[in-house]
Write a structure and sequence with these properties.
mainly beta, 64 strands, single chain, about 10% helix, seven-stranded mixed sheet
Length: about 900
């Protein structure tokens, strides 16, 4: 007897069987000397979790064994498992003709290998037509959705799930379509008799052509649709047969017209196939469905695929575009082929550009899509790909460019692409050959299956930057556009003769057709752009610029340059220049803050030397980097507080295009560069005063022999911080000088300062005679001419009388006396004031030559108003005192 063990546990265990045997029956192949010498037991090897093992036990029937019906009980156990399994086997012991006894066994699990039967006693092969009654015995597999089932062999009318999603659920025929998969037994215990529920599945569905290629979901021509095979696998073969259904695009079933033989297949191996012939059908889409014949035709038990039938009975070659710009990629498609067949697509080598290398020739056909191989065909019929082209013999010549293209089993077509950057700008024939045509056949002149023309036109290269002008010494981004199919471009420059290579290598063309190279200093990489003048900057497809050795040609004639895929622009080269602004307040910088901002532009310079020379000979310098994109420089808060008060000479300087300071020599053999000039300014002046140092600086730079240096110069005063009040009046009553302000109105106060805005704050207070503040306001915003203005609301609760206005800038203060009056008294008040302001600004700009401009403006105003009567607290005597005070204040300011 053969017993089968399955370890349903989670750990390895040793399997064994304990028998209860009839009298006179014993195990014959049990080794009594083994370690498991236990009477009535049979122990064998280790069984892993989920593993199934079998063991065959041989029994010996003694001569004196009792005859008749007996029972052999076997209880199986796996060490570590939670349960045991018992099998009772009925045996009949008969007397042999010679007086000895023999035994026969009749298993209690009827139904054969699949535990299914046509009859209740377990006899007869179970039908698989899906409509006949089937008897299910222990250990059978039933499928979701099966009907016409009857449990037999002691299974009862219903079973209980053992584990997982099936645990505790009831199973009884017919099997619901949503029944949980798993083991079901008579009592819900894993060791008891039961069945397994599985999901019916069609596991594979293919439509194969004569090459054995699966073309399901693809297309086939009518000519090649005669010998198709539909192949399917299914897992419920013991339960139900498989049938095929074919429908045309209108939904009409045409199975009988296109399927040879029966549309239903019974196969115990679970494999089915049908011969399909669509050659006489109309072009269109056809659906093919395989599923169970009756109950099992739902979910995964039913699978459908499609196939498109076309009329492409002849091999045809289509191009994505019949005319393209040189450098573009163009797609081609082979139609009418059989999936799995390989066709050669060919271009004559005479259509290559003269500059195309042998390796470039192998890359005309791109390695994309359905291309299996590509390369060239020689006059001897030999083929070389990109990796073998170096082996091309000197006595071999390239006759053709080719791609081997396999017809795809999904789409029914073969697709590839041509890179036209290697082809001449002309009309090119692209040929396709029948399957089986060899390179030798092609060289021998066999006729192509189809041919089409591709017109390749010359592309255009543009230069977008630089445009119009270029400053000697400046770094620029050189960029432009080119046909997207080009790999790279090369740059050339032209004066009056040939184009000369700019030796920066090739510049890659991006997929969007743009190319760029950053930080190119044209005046360094090309002598042509070192001298001012107007020249040509050109860009050309690198393929057109290569010489016979594969490198870029040092020079190209105008004809050669223009005949390639190229473009050029006119570029005017100018010398370096400099512009700078020194931010002072009305020509002054306050000593207490002691900083100044400088910014400007310096095309052609990497950095700018900024310096300040005090009147006693002290020098402050700093170097500012120039932005390579917009040529700007900007230095904030340069400290000059250690310079002596008085006039300061400021300058911005950079070396000209000759790249040396002045004539190339500095005192004491210092290097004639910015570092050397800085050292000389700081450490080489001895006892010179500011004016002498400035004159010496000009002599060594802009005034030196043959100098092309650039300097911007300015002068200003370094002075004590100062803020003062110039004008006071009530809003709506504008007047110059110091005027009364009204209760409940807004006082307008204006003045002058030499402090920088934003970094400093001006605070204004209105104080009474006791020193109490009755109004307060402040600002950090004023113009660079030093004029500030504040609005101060005067409250309704402010008493009329004499007050002091004080301005405080954090460094010093200034006060004036004002009178606060009622608003109604403004028309009857008398005010006499004189205010004089003078501003002078001087700037000098020098760039090889010197220009000086000076502007001076002075404004004076006197306003007198008189009315009859007297104003409260402001009589003639007080007016005289006010005039005297004003004179003293003016004298103090003058000092």
């Amino acid at each position: 007897m053969t017993y089968q063990f399955t370890n349903d546990g989670d750990a390895n265990g040793t399997a064994g069987i304990e028998f209860q045997l009839p009298d006179g029956v014993q195990i014959a192949n049990y080794d009594p000397e083994s370690a498991y010498d236990t009477e009535g037991a049979y122990i064998f090897g280790e069984v892993a979790p989920g593993e199934t093992q079998s063991v065959t036990v041989t029994f010996q029937v003694a001569d004196d064994a009792a005859t008749g019906d007996q029972t052999v009980t076997a209880t199986g156990t796996i060490t570590g498992a939670d349960s045991t399994s018992t099998v009772d086997t009925s045996v009949t012991v008969n007397s042999a003709d010679d007086g000895t006894t023999t035994s026969t066994t009749t298993p209690s699990n009827d139904g054969g290998d699949d535990h299914r039967a046509a009859n209740a006693d377990g006899s007869g092969e179970a039908p698989t037509d899906g409509v006949s009654e089937v008897y299910i015995f222990p250990d059978a597999t039933v499928y979701k959705g099966e009907e016409d089932l009857t449990f037999a062999g002691g299974l009862g009318s219903s079973l209980t799930g053992v584990a997982g999603n099936a645990e505790g659920t009831i199973l009884s025929p017919p099997v619901p379509q949503d029944q949980s998969e798993g083991r079901y037994t008579i009592d819900g215990e894993s060791g008891s008799d039961g069945v397994t529920v599985n999901t019916p599945r069609v596991t594979q569905l293919d439509v194969n052509n004569q090459n054995g290629k699966d073309i399901s979901g693809g297309s086939v021509s009518e000519q090649n649709a005669r010998n198709l095979t539909v192949a399917a696998d299914w897992n419920f073969q013991e339960a139900e047969d498989l049938e095929i259904t074919v429908e045309d695009s209108s939904g009409l079933e045409i199975t009988g017209d296109v399927v040879e033989g029966s549309d239903t297949i019974k196969n115990a191996d679970g494999e089915a196939s049908w011969n399909l012939d669509l050659s006489d059908q109309d072009a269109g889409d056809y659906s093919i469905t395989v599923e169970g014949t009756e109950d099992l035709d739902f979910g995964q038990a039913s699978q459908t695929t499609s196939i498109a039938l076309n009329t492409d009975d002849d091999i045809e070659l289509d191009l994505g575009s019949s005319s393209v710009t040189q450098g573009s990629n163009v797609q081609y498609t082979i139609r009418g082929g059989v999936a799995g067949n390989v066709h050669h697509v060919v271009i004559d080598a005479n259509d290559l550009r003269d500059s195309t290398s042998n390796r470039g020739a192998t890359q005309v056909f791109r390695n994309v899509g359905d291309v299996n191989a590509r390369g060239i065909i020689t006059d001897d019929g030999n083929v070389y790909g990109p990796n073998e082209i170096s082996e091309l013999g000197s006595d071999e010549s390239i006759d053709y460019l080719y791609a081997a293209v396999e017809i795809d089993d999904d789409t029914g077509v073969g697709v590839g692409s041509i890179d036209t950057q290697y082809l001449d700008d002309t009309s090119i024939d692209v040929d396709v050959y029948d399957a089986g045509t060899t390179p030798d056949d092609i060289v021998s002149g066999v006729s192509e299956a189809d041919s089409t023309s591709l017109d390749v036109t010359e592309g255009e290269v543009t230069i977008d930057n630089p445009s119009d002008t270029y400053v000697v010494g400046s770094e620029v981004e050189v960029n432009g556009t080119a046909p997207s199919g080009l790999d790279s471009v090369a740059l050339y420059a032209r004066d009056q003769g040939d184009y000369e290579l700019i030796p920066i290598g090739t510049i890659s063309v991006d997929s969007d057709g743009t190319w760029s190279e950053e930080d190119v200093r044209l005046s360094e990489v090309s002598d042509i752009f070192r001298i001012t003048g107007t020249y040509r900057l050109g860009a050309i497809d690198a393929q057109d610029a290569r010489n016979s050795s594969g490198g870029l040609s040092p020079t190209l004639s105008t004809s050669d340059f223009n005949s390639g895929t190229s473009g050029q622009t006119s570029l005017r080269v100018t010398k370096t220049s400099l512009d700078a602004k020194f931010w002072t307040i009305n020509g002054q910088v306050a000593q207490e803050t002691g900083t100044i901002d400088v910014n400007g532009t310096a095309p052609g310079a990497d950095n700018v030397l900024i310096g300040f020379i005090g009147r006693r000979g002290s020098v402050v310098t700093t170097t500012s980097s120039v932005d390579s994109d917009d040529y700007t420089f900007d230095e904030d808060d340069i400290s000059i507080s250690n310079l002596a008060e008085g006039e300061v000479n400021g300058f911005a300087y950079h070396i000209g295009q000759d790249d040396v300071v002045g004539d190339g020599e500095l005192p004491e053999n210092r290097n004639a560069d910015v570092n050397g000039l800085t050292d000389w300014l700081r450490n080489g002046q001895g006892s010179r005063d500011g004016t002498q140092i400035w004159n010496a600086f000009e002599s060594e730079t802009i005034d030196d022999s043959a100098s092309d240096d650039n300097v911007v110069q300015t002068s200003f005063r370094l002075a004590d911080a100062s803020s003062r009040i110039n004008t006071v009046y009530t809003e709506g009553h504008e007047a110059s000088g110091l005027n009364p302000i009204a209760v409940g109105e807004t006082a307008m106060v204006k003045g002058q300062t030499n402090l920088q805005p934003d970094d400093n704050t001006i605070t204004l207070e209105l104080q009474n005679q006791d020193g109490d503040t009755v109004a307060l306001t402040s600002t950090d915003e004023w113009s660079w001419d030093g004029s500030w203005s504040l609005e101060m609301p005067v409250g309704d609760d402010v008493a009329t009388g004499n007050y002091t206005l004080e301005v405080d800038d954090g460094e010093n203060t200034d006060t004036v006396d004002v009178q606060v009056v009622n608003a109604s008294e403004l028309e009857t008040s008398t005010s006499t004031s004189t205010s004089t302001s003078t501003s002078t600004s001087t700037s000098t700009s020098t760039s090889t030559s010197t220009s000086t401009s000076t502007s001076t403006s002075t404004s004076s105003s006197t306003s007198t108003s008189t009315s009859s009567g007297s104003s409260p607290g402001f009589g003639a005597a007080l007016a005289l005192i006010a005039l005297a005070g004003a004179a003293l204040l003016a004298l103090r300011r003058e000092n």
